[in-house]
């Protein structure tokens, strides 16, 4: 059996965006392309038993976002690395693929009601270039907003116009139905295709106002109706119509703990305009906060209707995904295994279609019924997995000095020696969590002879609101002692690790904590601080999240 090398990242593939489309199952397969050093993807098609039958795209540079309608599968694709994403349709009857749009800019989002052949898609028009090639003497860029850039995108356009189009393949007609200079998210469409759910900033002209609400767009009239205006400072990220169109299933959070507040699942009655918290009294987070380096092109959905009365939702719980079924305003868990459900959708009234990962299994397409039974369908890395061996992390829990339980995972070196080096690898966030999922970088470190200690100190997600709040405004205090005490615990329990070869590393918050650690102890032989926060003032003014992460405070 072979051990992993850095080059193997080009060989492994991931799956995401699983959907049922007609009599087929479709998922997006993503991999890193070595010649261009960029991510490429295509749409894999299966029959309902999970047998691979071919690709549902033109094998272009990248295809993704499979969106089923009545007779067509819609998706977006680009022919080359630098060309824009365009809208395509595939006919279920003969698999004929037709390019729908020929825009000079990318199609970013799309939704379609399954009972019609309509599709709605969003674009962002601008004359500006988000990422310009490096020049020795770059031109000056004038910045007018605090919120002006984002990792993975570049600079936001100052002349941007966000447009929403409707395409009818029966009439072969595209029409503009909504346009705004402020960005919005295309969340869902009702079964008739007459109403769209959008999420957007409540106060888009104020960069220091972080509230995000839900609005309904009447397709025929072009009229917007606010649904969540009673909660101007809350953040809603998902909205889905019930099959009968009478309710919305919302995912969002209040402003009680600002951006750190746990996400809950709500129902919104469109007629009475009333909001109901389905997770009242449940100290869990309806959001995927599990940390890894091995997922791309995730939909990020956390809740779906099964029918007009029942719904399913996902939480992040103690480093794993947990699934709930809601019926008659009551919610009960039906799946809580040691894995991460990376992406999912509704297969039928009793089954979900999922992609998932474990610590030693990069990805799998599977079905999951409402009793928690999981059936594997397809592994894109089956041959690779059979020829390679992964290190299985050992989960453990230790008590901090104040009695608080702290969860972690220990990875032995691939080929253990009598004495082995040990790396304390601090995760970013800090409000994320190490999890029961595949982590390529850690596997490569283990293959190179290192032991890895992965801890979720206080401040990490998935352990409840109070645990997550423990390090807010207190970086370097008990979160620091959690990490050091965790290292002490492992060195005591596992004498095969060499106390003279202790190392520390991490990125973002993990980078900050690495710099903090080496400034407060000399026990580590070496440390690697990646993209650390070392100056809170410059972080607030020049990074893409600093102004949200360190909001201005009023002093009396």
UniProtKB/TrEMBL annotation:
Q: What class of enzyme is it?
A: hydrolase
Q: Where is the Peptidase S9 prolyl oligopeptidase catalytic domain?
A: 437-551
Which InterPro entries did the record assign? AB_hydrolase_fold, Peptidase_S9_cat
Pfam families per UniProt: Peptidase_S9
Print the keywords alphabetically: Hydrolase
Can you tell which superkingdom this protein's organism belongs to? Bacteria
State any single GO MF term.
hydrolase activity
Q: Does the keyword Hydrolase apply?
A: yes
Q: What is its EC number?
A: 3.4.-.-
Q: What is this protein called?
A: Alpha/beta hydrolase family protein
Organism annotation = Lentilactobacillus raoultii
């Amino acid at each position: 059996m072979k051990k992993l090398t850095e080059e193997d990242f080009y060989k492994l593939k991931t799956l995401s965006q699983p959907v049922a489309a007609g009599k087929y199952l479709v998922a997006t397969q993503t991999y890193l392309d070595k010649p261009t050093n960029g991510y490429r993807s295509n749409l894999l098609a299966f029959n309902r038993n999970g047998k691979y039958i071919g690709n549902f795209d033109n094998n272009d540079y990248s295809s993704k976002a499979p969106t089923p309608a009545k007779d067509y599968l819609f998706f977006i694709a680009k022919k080359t690395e630098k060309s824009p994403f365009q809208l395509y349709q595939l006919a279920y009857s003969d698999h004929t693929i037709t390019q729908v749009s020929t825009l000079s800019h990318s199609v970013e989002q799309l939704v379609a009601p399954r009972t019609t052949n309509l599709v709605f898609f969003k674009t962002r028009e601008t004359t500006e270039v988000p990422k310009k090639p490096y020049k020795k003497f770059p031109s000056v860029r004038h910045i007018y907003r605090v919120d002006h850039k984002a990792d993975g995108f570049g600079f936001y356009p100052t002349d941007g116009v966000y447009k929403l189009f409707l395409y009818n393949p029966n009439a072969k007609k595209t029409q503009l139905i909504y346009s705004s200079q402020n960005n919005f998210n295309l969340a869902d469409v009702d079964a008739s295709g007459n109403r769209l759910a959008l999420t957007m900033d409540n106060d888009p002209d104020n960069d220091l106002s972080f509230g995000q609400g839900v609005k309904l767009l009447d397709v025929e009239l072009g009229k917007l109706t606010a649904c969540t205006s009673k909660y101007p400072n809350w953040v809603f990220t998902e909205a889905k119509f019930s099959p009968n169109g009478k309710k919305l299933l919302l995912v969002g959070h209040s402003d009680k703990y600002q951006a750190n507040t746990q996400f809950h699942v709500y129902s919104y009655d469109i007629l009475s305009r009333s909001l109901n918290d389905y997770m009242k009294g449940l100290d869990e987070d309806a959001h995927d906060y599990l940390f890894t380096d091995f997922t791309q092109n995730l939909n990020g959905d956390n809740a779906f209707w099964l029918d007009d009365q029942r719904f399913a939702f996902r939480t992040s719980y103690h480093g794993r995904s947990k699934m709930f079924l809601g019926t008659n305003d009551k919610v009960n868990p039906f799946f809580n295994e040691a894995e991460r459900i990376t992406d999912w959708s509704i297969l039928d009234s009793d089954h979900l279609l999922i992609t998932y990962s474990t610590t030693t299994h990069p990805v799998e397409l599977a079905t999951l019924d409402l009793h928690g039974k999981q059936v594997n369908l397809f592994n894109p890395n089956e041959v690779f997995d059979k020829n390679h061996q992964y290190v299985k992390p050992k989960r453990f829990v230790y008590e901090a000095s104040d009695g608080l339980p702290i969860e972690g995972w220990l990875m032995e070196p691939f080929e253990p020696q009598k004495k082995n080096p040990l790396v304390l690898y601090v995760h970013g966030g800090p409000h994320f969590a190490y999890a029961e999922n595949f982590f390529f970088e850690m596997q490569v470190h283990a293959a190179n002879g290192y032991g890895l200690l992965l801890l979720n100190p206080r401040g990490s997600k998935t352990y409840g609101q109070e645990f997550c709040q423990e390090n807010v405004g207190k970086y370097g205090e008990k979160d620091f002692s959690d990490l050091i005490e965790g290292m002490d615990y492992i060195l005591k329990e596992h004498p095969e690790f060499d106390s003279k070869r202790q190392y520390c590393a991490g990125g973002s918050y993990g980078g900050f904590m690495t710099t903090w650690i080496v400034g407060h102890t000399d026990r580590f032989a070496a440390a690697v601080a990646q993209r650390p926060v070392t100056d809170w003032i410059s972080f607030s003014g020049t990074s893409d999240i600093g102004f949200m992460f360190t909001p201005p405070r009023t002093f009396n």
